[in-house]
Amino acid sequence: MASPLPITKAVIPVAGLGTRFLPATKAMPKEMLPVVDKPAIQYVVEEAVAAGLTDVLMVTGRNKNALENHFDRAGELEAVLSSKGDSEKLQKVDYSTHLADVHYVRQGDPKGLGHAVLRAKMHVGREPFAVLLGDDIIDSRDPLLTRMLEVQQREHTTVVALLEVDPSQTHLYGIATVEGTDEDDVVKITGLVEKPPPGESPSNYAIIGRYVLRPEIFEVLERTPPGKGGEIQLTDALQELATGPNWAGGVYGVVFRGRRYDTGDRLDYLKAIVRLASDRDDLGGEFRPWLKEFVGTLPDEDGGWQGGEDG
Length: 311
Known about the structure:
Catalytic activity: alpha-D-glucose 1-phosphate + UTP + H(+) = UDP-alpha-D-glucose + diphosphate
Largest sheet: 5 strands, mixed, barrel
Number of helices: 11
CATH architecture of the largest domain: Alpha-Beta Complex
Keywords: Nucleotidyltransferase, Transferase
Number of domains: 2
Oligomer: single chain
InterPro entries: GalU_uridylyltTrfase_bac/arc, NTP_transferase_dom, Nucleotide-diphossugar_trans
Organism: Protaetiibacter mangrovi
EC number: 2.7.7.9
CATH superfamily of the largest domain: Spore Coat Polysaccharide Biosynthesis Protein SpsA, Chain A
């Protein structure tokens, strides 16, 4: 068997409207909302680059110019910082400019994740590639994508990231039916269903926002009809690869048990900021004691107050 093609390309769909964060996202892409002091999208690009993927395609929509600006030169800002001798901030600004070779394509009509991935066909060509969704931030200390790339290169197959979720949450995710392998964190996927009704989920293995796809996914997506919500669902195309002919290589899953921060809704976004700030070397030392003190002043669920005399 020929050696697999090295994977160098990452596709990041960023065309969503971010309606759950209105009015903040009225004029700002949700991917640019700050998580501590970096926009959420930068964490995702940094993850791709750390895994060796330096060719990044963002599938954008209207009013996403701020994304392009963030990864472009900021000549005036750089000049001001340079004149002030503020090398630390200048380095941070310059870092995002040279982080990766970033390209952009418009999705046009919002026809779902499958359609967004299909828009990458001309850029990707006949190579395997990764897809990273911006709502999921994976802690850099738990390199999920690197592990997925390793499995893909060994098995020559499509690989998705899986997370074991509480059974009460399965209706919020695409869910996989799986078979075990010789490795504790790798499973063979035998079926997929997008957001099954409560009580009808085949398992609690949820698909989270990381995929390593073979290029055959494009021809499958081209014939995949609209599914849930009238959109072209990537899960439906993966279902065909998982249960179809062997030429597609099947679908494997890497079960992730590390730290994941969901920035897709307001509550989890706040939790992500607190958790990441608490772990920062430059912030955690002061932030954690303040946080403990602040939590001590919060009311109990019954409306009473914790803490000392000032409560």
